[in-house]
Amino acid sequence: MLTNFQTRILKTISSGGRDGSAGCVHQGKSKLAALMGDEFFTTIAGKVVLDFGCGEGAEAIEMAQRGASRVIGIDIREDVLQVAKARALDARVQDTCVFATSTKELADLVVSVDAFEHFADPAEILRIMNTLLRPSGEVLISFGPTWYHPLGGHLFSVFPWAHLIFSEEALIRWRSTFKTDGATRFGEVAGGLNQISVAKFEALVAASPFKFAALELVPIKRLRRLHNSLTREFTTAVVRCRLVKRS
Ligand SMILES: C[S@@+](CC[C@H](N)C(=O)[O-])C[C@H]1O[C@@H](n2cnc3c(N)ncnc32)[C@H](O)[C@@H]1O
To answer: Which one of 50, 78, 84, 123 has the fewest beta carbons within 10 angstroms of its own beta carbon?
Structure first.
């Protein structure tokens, strides 16, 4: 009964458009330059790079074009990998930039962009990254929005924090009015959504084979004056970090 009522509200609210994603524009810059900084392309020069959660491959291809000696894009979705492979062919980097659901190749650098909030088992992903990374290598992660961000529910954030106000059941039922993949939980939507918070991410890294060499919580621009250790879960736009292996 309550779920039906909530679903009806969601349908009404979203009828003007349902893109509740937190997609951001990077002001004409490439996403990698905007998220990782311009010096990122110096870091990847001549390196074997693993792009974990590569999606349709735009960043992997850019890394291949801008100096990486080899890029391996990893994703669980075959459909996005097909798009990525076609794009690599178009960009004529198919020999240096490959895409697959898994690899055994060792990398000098592991990169993961906008994917950590989607991994069903992020602790396992860190373990896999550790096995694929050379001892002196590092992991560069940038992701967000995290779960308590106003748009942390991605598609489910019909308005800011809607994903925290409505029940999972109502949100999933509302989603099933326009998506037909049969997902019954947040974690089952295409590409996944694991409800990770900043604190959960810190705890994951603490329990992983990695330690933070750097961690930056980038505030939501308009809320930056309110951004502090108490409000960070609600006011962080992007979690950015550099991980190294524990020695
Ligand atoms: C929001 S997309 C980001 C894609 C790309 N990195 C970008 O920045 O545009 C997140 C990607 O992570 C992928 N993903 C989710 N779980 C994964 C897993 N266990 N292993 C590899 N990729 C995964 C999804 O399929 C999706 O393509």
So the answer is: 78
